[in-house]
TrEMBL record, chain A:
InterPro entries for the chain: NTF2-like_dom_sf, Rng_hydr_dOase-bsu
Protein name, entry field: Salicylate 5-hydroxylase small subunit
PANTHER family according to UniProt: BLR3401 PROTEIN
Record organism: Marinobacterium zhoushanense
Pfam families: Ring_hydroxyl_B (PF00866)
From TrEMBL, chain B:
Gene3D superfamilies on file: Naphthalene 1,2-dioxygenase Alpha Subunit, Chain A, domain 1 (3.90.380.10), Rieske [2Fe-2S] iron-sulphur domain (2.102.10.10)
Family according to the record: Belongs to the bacterial ring-hydroxylating dioxygenase alpha subunit family.
Superkingdom of source: Bacteria
Keywords: 2Fe-2S, Dioxygenase, Iron, Iron-sulfur, Metal-binding, NAD, Oxidoreductase
Organism lineage: Bacteria, Pseudomonadati, Pseudomonadota, Gammaproteobacteria, Oceanospirillales
Species name: Marinobacterium zhoushanense
InterPro entries reported for this sequence: AhdA1c-like_alpha_C (IPR043264), ARHD_Rieske_2Fe_2S (IPR015881), Rieske_2Fe-2S (IPR017941), Rieske_2Fe-2S_sf (IPR036922), Ring_hydroxy_dOase_asu_C_dom (IPR015879), Rng_hydr_dOase-A (IPR001663)
Name the UniProt record assigns to this protein: Biphenyl 2,3-dioxygenase
Keyword Oxidoreductase: yes
Length: 161, 418
């Protein structure tokens, strides 16, 4: 990204948006999480191995807000799992492309998981590959692909990251 | 003090049948070492992968059998070989890439190199060095490269799936699977070329047998996996069958989803909500495929190493890779078939959201296995109970039985001689 085209205001807005995202998932505030996406969004959690080998399989692959809602219903009402807290540390975004209505950006993330009676574990480490829309209502995720480095998911992955 | 809380001197199988399973089979490291030897390295064919993962000459994939690292590689003649990933020189586990393409297999330590069948081709300084007109060092004159190849395993391929065995004397693959199970194997792998869709991997902190049990346990899906029930995928009145090979080591749970009206009997799970509808029905956009020949789901356990899954349009292999008595890696390889339309591929990928470490109806399996192991570890002298459907071992035409688990432990006891 050429520094002459870098827009400070957008960068700060995007940074705040990423931190809002972290706060929403860490607080298990799923309504807010869903609202950060565009209606026709894509959300995937995919291993780096699949991603780099161009294999389409993902641990989770959701398209459209309806699927996001179904996922939240699943994790809150149907899937039995050990309760845990999440803590997301999201690095400063790196803007790769900017147009009047779209930001292409990436950011590294680390997600720590803490179970009841437990101590924090490094749960998932990776990179968000994002397309973020600038809309009248603020930023909305058109596409977020969470590409994680871990070869193994530590047993199960329940909450969005 | 009841019998249950007294610590017996000898936690053993104290009855002839297998409706009680000592927790010790899950907690004892020595038992685990014996299992690796008797079940994974001898007498059995273990899953290594799909031919579609290594389509070209030189393509390789590193994987494991039990806890031994092996390489599945396609040679220049197009044959698939499986060799152990331990250098014949000083034993280094030399292959570090998970997959790739190579002309030869080379151990970086001292550059011993092997052809794609595992034969030793070259040993640097085999004939020493010349110094002051004299040859110094090198391998002894009687060194025979032919005797120092990589350990070459026996390989069996069927329908695009590759199995291997460390055991020279293992029975033919078809006999190992047995005619009953071969029928279901061939139903899924009927000769069409497979198309690799990708992997899902999870590390489950529990004994590996718990995963075999999980897929031999038709009692839990309608009870644990509330998602199935909520969205009408699981009904107690679905037509179903439980089948085994003659040794009771392999099994298939076969079910056919009924069209059942509103009044048809569902399970009595309290969380069942008849009115629940998916916001996005594409998760369950099922298209009947001709090769199913009826059943909408066949879950096949091939002892000890793999589960073959058909759940409506989602097909995968699930490879069990133990690491210690209390943990295993579970590697899902999702695939489709060469003649799949783009829509069918999309459908398989979409339905994969139900499975794997994040799956709507699989994430909970990993969790219950972890907590089962916790229960065993705190009470290793105790035993679990598997007498649903009686204490006998028999095939059934319903799902309300733990017969497949009893069958597996009958076989296990014979193999382990306990
Ligand atoms: S250990 Fe492999 S070449 Fe020496
Ligand atoms: Fe299950």
């Amino acid at each position: 990204m050429n520094s002459t085209t870098m827009n400070m205001e957008i960068y700060l807005q995007l940074t705040q948006f990423y931190q809002d995202y972290a706060a929403a998932v860490d607080a298990a505030d799923w309504d807010s999480w869903i609202e950060m996406f565009a209606d026709d969004c894509t959300y995937r959690i995919q291993s780096r191995e699949n991603h780099e080998r161009n294999l389409p399989m993902a641990a989770l692959s959701l398209d459209g807000k309806g699927m996001l809602k179904d996922r939240i219903y699943g994790i809150t009402e149907t899937i039995f799992h050990d309760p845990y807290m999440q803590n997301h540390v999201i690095a400063a975004p790196r803007i790769l492309g900017l147009s009047p209505d779209l930001i292409e950006a990436q950011a590294n993330y680390a997600v720590f998981r803490t179970k009841n009676d437990g101590i924090a574990q490094v749960f998932n480490v990776g990179r968000y590959i994002d397309r973020i829309r600038q809309t009248a209502d603020g930023l909305r995720i058109e596409s977020r692909i969470c590409v994680f480095d871990n070869d193994m998911i530590l047993n199960s992955l329940i909450y969005p990251i | 003090m009841s019998n249950d809380t007294r610590i017996p001197l000898q936690p053993v199988w104290d009855q002839p049948d297998t409706s009680r399973i000592p927790f010790k089979v899950y907690t004892d490291e020595q038992t685990h070492q014996q299992e690796l030897e008797k079940l994974f390295y001898r007498n059995h064919w273990c899953y290594v992968g799909l031919e579609a993962e290594i389509p070209e000459p030189g393509d390789f994939k590193r994987t494991v059998i039990g806890e031994r690292s092996v390489i599945m590689v396609r040679d220049n003649e197009g044959m698939i070989n499986v060799v152990e990933n331990v250098c014949a020189h000083r034993g280094m586990r030399f292959c570090r890439k998970k997959h790739g393409n190579a002309k030869e297999l080379v151990c970086p330590y001292h550059q011993w190199n092997y052809d794609l069948k595992g034969n030793l081709q070259g040993v640097p300084f085999r004939r020493g060095v010349k110094q002051d007109g004299e040859v110094k060092g090198g391998m002894p004159k009687d060194f025979k490269p032919a005797e120092h190849g990589l350990t070459q395993l026996r390989v069996a391929q069927r329908g695009g799936v590759v199995f291997a065995s460390f055991d020279e004397n293992v029975e033919p693959f078809e006999e190992f699977i047995g005619p009953q199970m071969l029928h279901y194997f061939d139903r899924l792998f009927n000769g069409r070329k497979l198309k690799l869709l990708g992997y899902n991997k999870q590390r489950i902190p529990g004994n590996w047998k718990l995963m075999q049990e999980n897929i031999k346990d038709p009692y839990h899906p309608g009870l644990l996996h509330t998602w199935f029930v909520t969205f009408g995928l699981w009904r107690a009145d679905n037509r179903s069958e439980l089948k085994m090979d003659e040794h009771h080591r392999h099994a298939a749970m076969i079910s056919t989803r009924g069209q059942g009206g509103k009044n048809a009997q569902t399970t009595n799970v309290s969380s069942f909500k008849e009115e629940m509808k998916l916001n996005d029905p594409r998760f369950l956009d099922v298209e009947v495929e001709p090769w199913w020949n009826g059943p909408t789901a066949v879950m096949m356990t091939v002892f000890p190493s793999v589960i073959l899954q058909q759940q409506v349009n989602s097909v995968s292999t699930r490879h069990i890779q133990p690491n210690g008595h209390d943990s295993f890696d579970f590697v899902w390889t999702h695939f489709g078939f060469e003649d799949d339309t783009p829509e069918m591929t999309e459908r398989r990928l979409r339905q994969a959201n139900l499975f794997g470490p994040a799956g709507f109806v699989s994430a909970d399996d990993g969790e219950v296995i972890e907590f089962s192991q916790e229960g065993f570890e705190q009470k290793p002298f105790h035993r679990s109970l598997a007498e649903l459907g009686g204490r006998e071992i028999e095939e059934t035409d319903h799902m309300v039985s733990e017969t497949l688990i009893r069958g597996m432990y009958e076989y296990w006891r014979k193999q382990m001689e306990v």
